[in-house]
Amino acid sequence: MALLALASAVLSALLALAVFRAPAWACLLCFTTYSERLRICQMFVGMRGPKLEECEEAFTAAFRGLSDTEINYDERSHLHDAFTQMTHALQELAAAQGSFEVAFPDAAEKMKKVITQLKEAQACIPPCGLQEFARRFLCSGCYSRVCDLPLDCPVQDVTVIRGDQAMFSCIVNFQLPKEEITYSWKFAGGGLRTQDLSYFRDMPRAEGYLARIRPAQLTHRGTFSCVIKQDQRPLARLYFFLNVTGPPPRAETELQASFREVLRWAPRDAELIEPWRPSLGELLVRPEALTPSNLFLLAALGALASASATVLAWIFFRWYCSGN
Question: Where is the chain membrane-spanning (predicted)?
């Protein structure tokens, strides 16, 4: 039974090719079946006879202008509905004893107007990526195709000074689907500039469309890769070659130098360093020495001197009175 069904399908296809001698598969053949087209002609001219073949050829010729039509892939259902309505209208005309010589060209013109009103497919945006929103349906073969662009995008150069921040944005210039978009990052180190995936290793901690390295070091020289996927299907691969050049920033250099000096200090060297204790003259001459602690010390010294003078004056007064 399966072989019989397969043979029947093949014979039907060959019969359709023999009857409809179109130079290419037109939209008519994509959105209608052979049995539907044959039924329409039989309703116009009868079940048999030379008029039947003439009707079939006229049907094909009327829609030959749509053979090279390309439409937005998402508009296929709308065009299919339009062809379904067209077949019903032709059947009604045939039942009303209409003429196929008039009905077929008129139906083809109406379909051309319907196609012009469909939403156009987006243009392909180079240089790379699987751009689903630019997918087109071709009536010339009843199939769809996307932009003929590579999945790998050109390498972008990023240059930073050692110690600065390096940031990569995994953004493409074409529209991405809204659902199930994921980003994964890889790295090929050793200063290698490459798009060969065998040199890359995964970076599991990197997530999202932004990646940042801080501070950038010489060991970070190499190529970073971001893969954009929808439901595990790659849509684009972006590459960033990071070139780390020059010395670190001055502030970092001074801090590292100070830290190295601290590490190199010996205990005996530390004993040679004494805290600065300004004298009273230095306190009065150098305003920057009048810190809060030094001001408190001056106040304490003043109070002590005043108390000492009072005690000495009282002792002198007692001694003087006792002598008299």
Answer: 295-317
